[in-house]
Design goal:
Structural class: alpha+beta
Strand order of the largest sheet: 1-4-5-8-7-6
Radius of gyration: 29 Å
Shape: globular
Largest sheet: 6 strands, antiparallel, barrel
Helix content: 25-40%
Oligomer: single chain
Distance between the termini: 59 Å
């Protein structure tokens, strides 16, 4: 049976468009295995194996195990287990170099989870980079691209890492909030005791309240589940060989499905904005550092991860950034220390690495060869001509829907005429559709005490993607919505959406939260927020309404 010209043209056009479509960016399992999670817990006392685990007695009688630890990301650069990260990940003070800190690395290999004790072999506080080593760790090295001239502004880049907010986002917020409150009181009591000894007198209630507020401002979200995991790993280590430096912790991690997610890196996409030298962490008087300004979304915990180009080569080490909020709009700048800043030390100390090949594309598909582009163009042209000739053969001018409704076309497509929408005759497409559910928008509008206008927009999508709860505060790394005013705490309040209702809770802020002038005196206690109400965060008054 001879295929009609218009049908042949239609299929040829579909084939050409499919061939021209770009592939989706993919990150291989090998690349994920080479990106590791680093944590630096306080070691157990008296040089014992494991971590310093302390216990918090909750008001409901529950005992919670806690491990004081910092977190970050690293990536493997050679077969000898050398890993690059940020200096501030492995040093308690960003401007210091402290190699004796306990550094642990967790690597996901297939369905197994391996933990290694690492040794810090090099640190540069000014560059905010460090190199650690786990001799037992085996992974495919990520290639380094040292020549910054091969990268240009607007080039697509990717970051991989383990942001802490991902851990907290799946928590029981009420339970984690109560644990955070207990931690604040424990730390505040330590500060009060130290000040009492130093001043040789008891602190007044106002002074104690000021200490509690200051501690609360510096205490970020608490992941109760992550602390339970670290406590479980500690129990496992205390039963293992005291001389070991690597452990298979798969049986521990697999006790809860949630724990396995902690060791799968997230991937974010952005563009290079600027490649230039700027002052390092130590400031003026020290050598400038080559940095890459980019637009990848970086959160606390991504520090030390790789900044990759489309070919999978490491352009830099994800590090610090800077944020500013003006008139309610947040401005964010992210930097990565260029890979070229590592080369001198690696060469001087004869540490091996893999040099990236410019033409080796392993993320998005590279540009199609010229011959294929020409072939596609010709195919499209032939398809269009054949389609026009086919349409001329009809006595009436058919619509595109008429062609699709042809029984011969329906047979080829494997469908029926009744399943095809008659675009030309459908009256339903001419009327405005009803608003789609789940796309509601609301706004908080007001001014700061300094007179700066504030306008915050929240949507159903924002609530849905954050467990129906948005945290408001002054610090971008700890909140979903930023309100930049000195009277607002780093984590000030939260708004939870429950069906068509909104509930506001103060998060133990220094200057409290109020709805219509009524202050909520109990932390984490939820009160209704209705359209037309006024929400007060510290000294910032915001009117809540629907868009």
């Amino acid at each position: 049976m001879k295929l009609p010209a218009y049908l042949f043209a239609f299929l040829l056009l579909c084939f050409a468009l499919a061939l021209a479509a770009p592939a989706t960016a993919q990150v291989s399992n090998e690349m994920q295995e080479s990106t590791v999670r680093i944590f630096c817990p306080e070691p157990a006392e008296n040089n014992r194996v494991g971590f310093d685990v302390f216990h918090i007695k909750m008001s409901n009688g529950e005992t919670v195990n806690m491990v004081d630890s910092s977190f970050g990301t690293g990536f493997v650069i050679n077969k000898d287990g050398y890993i690059v990260t940020n200096n501030h990940v492995v040093a308690p003070d960003v401007k210091q170099e402290v190699p004796e800190k306990l550094v642990m690395v967790v690597q996901k290999v297939g369905n197994r989870y391996l933990m290694h004790k690492a040794k810090v072999v090099w640190q540069s506080a000014n560059r905010d980079v460090a190199i650690i080593q786990c001799p037992q760790l085996k992974a495919t090295p990520l290639p380094l691209l040292f020549d910054e001239t091969k990268s240009t502004a607007s080039e697509e880049v990717y970051s991989m890492g383990f942001p802490g907010i991902t851990d907290v986002a799946v928590e029981d917020f009420n339970r984690s909030g109560e644990i955070r409150k207990e931690i604040i009181m424990i730390k505040a009591q330590r500060v009060v005791n130290d000040l009492t000894l130093k001043l040789r007198r008891k602190l007044t209630q106002n002074e104690i309240n000021a200490v509690v507020g200051e501690v609360a401002d510096h205490q970020g979200p608490v992941s109760a589940e992550r602390n339970e995991l670290l406590s479980a790993i500690d129990s496992y280590l205390k039963q293992s060989d005291a001389a070991a430096t690597s452990w298979d912790i798969t049986n521990v991690v697999e006790r809860k499905a949630l724990w396995k997610n902690y060791f799968t890196p997230t991937v974010t996409k952005g563009n290079i904005e600027l490649i230039s030298k700027r002052h390092g962490i130590l400031g003026v008087g020290y050598p400038d550092v080559l940095t890459i300004q980019h637009s990848c979304a970086i959160k606390h915990g991504n520090s030390g991860g790789p900044l990759l180009n489309a070919g999978g080569q490491v352009l830099g080490v994800v590090g610090d950034g800077m944020s500013k909020v003006s008139s309610g709009d947040k401005e964010m700048i992210e930097w990565a220390t260029a890979a070229n800043e590592l080369k001198g030390w690696l060469d001087d100390n004869h540490v091996g690495y893999v040099i990236g090949q410019e033409t080796h594309k392993i993320l998005p598909t590279a540009a199609l060869p010229v011959k294929i582009i020409v072939a596609i163009a010709l195919a499209v042209a032939v398809a269009i001509v054949a389609l026009i000739l086919g349409l001329i053969k009809f006595n009436q001018k058919p619509t595109f829907t008429t062609i699709l409704r042809d029984p011969r076309m329906a047979k080829v497509l494997g469908t029926t005429q009744s399943k095809l929408i008659d675009v030309a005759d459908s009256s339903s497409l001419r009327t405005s559709p009803a608003p789609l559910p789940g796309f509601g928008k609301w706004q908080l509008v007001g001014r700061t005490p300094k007179g700066d206008s504030v306008r915050i927009e929240v949507t159903d999508m924002m609530f849905a993607s954050n467990n129906n709860r948005l945290v408001l505060g002054r610090t971008a790394e700890l909140c979903h919505v930023v309100v930049n005013d000195d009277s607002v705490s780093k984590q000030h309040a939260s708004i939870r959406k429950e069906g068509d209702r909104f509930l506001v809770a103060d998060r133990n802020s220094s200057n409290r939260t109020a709805v219509n002038g009524q202050f909520n005196t109990k932390a984490f206690n939820e009160v209704p927020l209705r359209e037309g109400d006024t929400l007060t965060l510290g000294e910032v008054r915001l009117d809540f309404s629907k868009l």
